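Researcher: Batch entry, complex prediction.
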Amino acid sequence: MAYHSGPGLPAILLQVSQIRAQNLSKFYPVTLKAPGFVGTLRHFFQRKYKQVEAVKGVSFQIAPGEVVGFLGPNGAGKTTTLKLLSGLIYPSAGQVEVAGHQPFKREHAFLRKITLVMGNKQQLIWDLPAADSFRVNAAVYEIPEADFKKRVGELSEMLALEGKLNQPVRKLSLGERMKAELLAALLHRPQVLFLDEPTLGLDVNAQVAVREFLREYNRRYQATILLTSHYMADITALCERVLMIHQGSLVYDGGLEGLLGRFAPYREVHIQLGQLVEKDRLGQYGEVREQEGLEARLLIRREQLVGGVSQMLRELPIADLEVRDPAIEEVIGQVFADTRLIAGPITDG
Ligand SMILES: Nc1ncnc2c1ncn2[C@@H]1O[C@H](COP(=O)(O)OP(=O)(O)OP(=O)(O)O)[C@@H](O)[C@H]1O
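Model: Structure tokens for the complex:
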């Protein structure tokens, strides 16, 4: 059995996996219907189906206590994978094991160990105070009264939600509501957290608060977290390792740094000029991304970097020059815009 060996992972974590997917696939049957009345009639008598291959032969393992980012463009298969891992849907093929259970069996012992939070769905009852919804969760998960009170106190302090739990959920701000959703989802103290866009739509301060809470929750309870987010700041702040999925297939499993190295076909060159140079002239050395006064930022393809930089130093009035990796957001955008980049082995090596 192969284990992930990402950078900085303590050796003890390499011995077991909390989440294991092996050739995991999910195909959804969808009906095909030609447009118009004739199409509807034909569809009524002779239904035609096609398979949407939402997840195709995905394999990975996640060790206890790891926080892993799950990246991919819209429709890539992230939510479907999270639903497979939390047992909401049955796999079409392959194996899946989470916390020692086969998720689709939905055993009580399994449900006590996991939670699934979807940023676009809510479980709290709109017209009731969050505290009342927490009571429902406590009953479902059979949490003893003393533990319940202790956990609500502890989590509401970590989430800075004190004083907010006794008013109807509809009166909370979006950020407070999301934090209350997290509190409800974590009352049974799950070991494995599947988080689908937990910061969706939140303002920057609330995003930071949720991020810090998740980091602290992971540290305090050694919880395993698999997290999707369209905000790269969530991923860079929380995850050393990322999985990237594209059109249902896993295209990358490794460190964030390795993702840059593998997928960024260019590097960023920041220059400080001694005197003004026209943009057209700068453009001869690379793609000018920004130019303001004497400062400019260019993208130069990796294979042309050494030659390009030496030429700039020879021909331009350069006062200072620095070569950096491009921002991870730009890299991801580039990967998804250019699918040729994602053919090849899955590795960060
Ligand atoms: N119940 C369903 N029936 C049919 N097709 C589905 C169903 N659920 C998802 N799909 C399709 O499966 C593919 C993967 O969808 P999924 O929701 O897993 O993607 P995603 O990566 O989570 O996307 P997003 O970032 O937009 O949420 C898409 O093509 C989607 O249209």
